[in-house]
Amino acid sequence: MQIFNWITPNPTCVNPQDTLEKARELMTAGGFRRLPVVEGDKRLVGMISERDVRQHLGYLPQTRVNAAMASSPISIPQGETAEFAAKLMLQHKIGGLPVINEGRVVGIVTTTDLLKALLNVVQAAGDILKQ
């Protein structure tokens, strides 16, 4: 099952020079728990999570994203499978992966997205068994 069918395309991203306050505002407004950190033409340089932001409470307006982000994020190419994404997420104990094409962020896949994919497969298998 191709991952591209289950991603959130064109995710909200932040720049390394943005403040953690801006990152938190974007997360809160969009209901996100993580954001890709990009430079220039959406070239992936990091990931920032709610946990990263919480560790700097009280200093959000003056702290830059690059001070708190994971700077070597695990990502997945857009041509990979949902199964591979799930294995990566389990192996690294993470809840989301940026999806990239030639180093540029084209989407994000989360645990919720993979659960939706699983439910789709279970439903399809149930439909086949009913026949």
Describe the structure.
By secondary structure, this protein is of the alpha+beta class. The protein has one domain: Roll (CBS-domain), CATH 3.10.580. Helix content is 36%, strand content 23%. It is built from four helices and six strands. It has helices at 20-30, 50-54, 82-92, 111-130; strands spanning 8-9, 34-39, 43-49, 76-77, 96-101, 104-110. The strands form two sheets. Strands 1-6-5-4 form a four-stranded mixed β-sheet. The protein has a two-stranded antiparallel ribbon with strand order 2-3. The longest helix has 20 residues, at 111-130. It is elongated, with a radius of gyration of 16 Å.
Question: How many β strands by DSSP?
Answer: 6
Helix content: 25-40%
Q: What oligomeric state best describes the polypeptide chains here?
A: single chain
Provide the CATH top-level class: Alpha Beta
Main sheet makeup:
4 strands, mixed
CATH superfamily: CBS-domain
- Uncertain regions spanning at least 5 consecutive residues: none
Mean pLDDT across the residues is 94
Question: Distance between termini?
Answer: 23 Å
The number of distinct structural domains comes to: 1
- CATH topology, by name, is CBS-domain
How large is the share of residues in beta strands? 15-25%
What's the number of helices? 4
Q: Which structural category do the helix and sheet elements fall into?
A: alpha+beta
Features:
131 residues; alpha+beta; four-stranded mixed sheet; 4 helices; elongated; CBS-domain; two-stranded antiparallel ribbon; single chain
Summarize it.
This protein has helices at about 20-30, 50-55, 80-90, 110-130, and strands at about 10, 35-40, 45-50, 75, 95-100, 105-110. The protein is an alpha+beta fold and about 130 residues long.
